[in-house]
Amino acid sequence: MTDTSEPLTMECPFCGWKSKEGEYQMLLHMETLHAEGESPFLTEQDRTSPQNGTGSTAGNDDDPQYVECPVDGCGEFLLVSQVEYHLELHSEETDVQDLPASSEPIPISEPAPSSSITSSAPGPSSKSSHNHPESTRRSKAISAWKRLLRMPSTHREYVLRRRHNSKTTSGSESNTRGTRLGKKHLGKYAHEDRMPDWLADLLRKKGQVQTAGVVPVLAQLLELSPSTNYAYLCHPCVYHISKLKREGGFCGYRNIQMLSSYIIQTGMQNHEKLGPSIPSIFQIQDFIETAWDNGISAAGRIETGGIRGTRKYIGTPEAVAMFRLLQIAFQAQSFKHKEHAKAEEMLMTAVESYFAEDERAVRRGEGGRVRLTGLPPLYFQHYGHSMTIVGVERLRDGGRVLLVFDPHFKDSYAVTGMVGRTVPHPYPDYALRPYRRGNKYLKEFREFEILR
């Protein structure tokens, strides 16, 4: 019998070019026209040709092959190892609000890198946000990347897995102190002198996306969750601050802003030095540069080449410099082990011990499973990204997960609609997924840092 079925059409997530000639043809197109470094499909003459724009810098060991998120308006440059998880969380920004009012159970998990978000959840309602053109474009981009991520590894390696060896990936940042850093630590724009004017204008006019009252909503969801054995949460005043559309990677700044929301609203000692409101990205840059001027963690200026007016990544050392300048009490702690599981266990134990210190924690829910503390959140850093830890959860199966505010993502309507209200949610575990970071996410890393 003749097979008359149409071949699968694949779409390039960079330029939208479509092909029905198979996976290898798509990879050839991407590596020829969109390669980040040296393409295995190009000849030596092609690589050195001026029109290819690679020159002598192609394949620089300092470049860990960042990939731009294909979701329209995100602007984030990601390590290839983080792309699939990142796309799952983008899916949940809109998918959570579409759950029907039903009592069907939702399996507990973080977004699984190996499966679609819709595989373990009910389908969207008839009023799904995916009918909106922007949501449709987003879904197409995510689907295109997921197809690439499911390709046979022999071909996919060329595009998505050209990573540094384990020594480069897991090396301690402390070994680089006092030397000029590059893209591995400072991101795609490590050598940029100034961010584009359009971006500076956007940040000045829009500031940030900030949502108050999310921590109490997490408490409600945890009380309802059949998967929660017990959980701790930070002070309920902490804002979830997330990125603006198209801003790219300012996660370090956004986490400093989340810590600042606690410092200002609780009147912590020396809070007035931050000013009356959450400092902007430019104000944070000024604080850090002033700290360097005063000899506080001054090696940071050598390592970064200066950050004022740029979009270079910042991390724990810059946060430390700022808080030292402002004389705001803090404690930094790092966890490193050659075995991934050991580093994760050390982190989880330290975070749980931190939250358990508050003897005045208010217990809520059946048997007091959810414990609301008055403690600050934690600045949380791993290779390539940082978040704010707002709690920790012990699951009934014995596992532990961090509860985080991730500046990459905004809260879903299903969560913001619960702010200031006490309403039951039919799928608490599903709504909690974007805030949970457990072994599926953390297992790749051998080193973590927190700032409390």
From TrEMBL:
<feature type="region of interest" description="Disordered">
    <location>
        <begin position="35"/>
        <end position="67"/>
    </location>
</feature>
<feature type="compositionally biased region" description="Low complexity">
    <location>
        <begin position="100"/>
        <end position="128"/>
    </location>
</feature>
<dbReference type="GO" id="GO:0016787">
    <property type="term" value="F:hydrolase activity"/>
</dbReference>
<dbReference type="InterPro" id="IPR012462">
    <property type="entry name" value="UFSP1/2_DUB_cat"/>
</dbReference>
<keyword id="KW-0378">Hydrolase</keyword>
<feature type="compositionally biased region" description="Polar residues">
    <location>
        <begin position="167"/>
        <end position="178"/>
    </location>
</feature>
<feature type="domain" description="UFSP1/2/DUB catalytic">
    <location>
        <begin position="228"/>
        <end position="451"/>
    </location>
</feature>
<feature type="region of interest" description="Disordered">
    <location>
        <begin position="156"/>
        <end position="181"/>
    </location>
</feature>
<protein>
    <submittedName>
        <fullName>Peptidase family C78-domain-containing protein</fullName>
    </submittedName>
</protein>
<feature type="compositionally biased region" description="Polar residues">
    <location>
        <begin position="48"/>
        <end position="59"/>
    </location>
</feature>
<dbReference type="Pfam" id="PF07910">
    <property type="entry name" value="Peptidase_C78"/>
</dbReference>
<feature type="region of interest" description="Disordered">
    <location>
        <begin position="94"/>
        <end position="144"/>
    </location>
</feature>
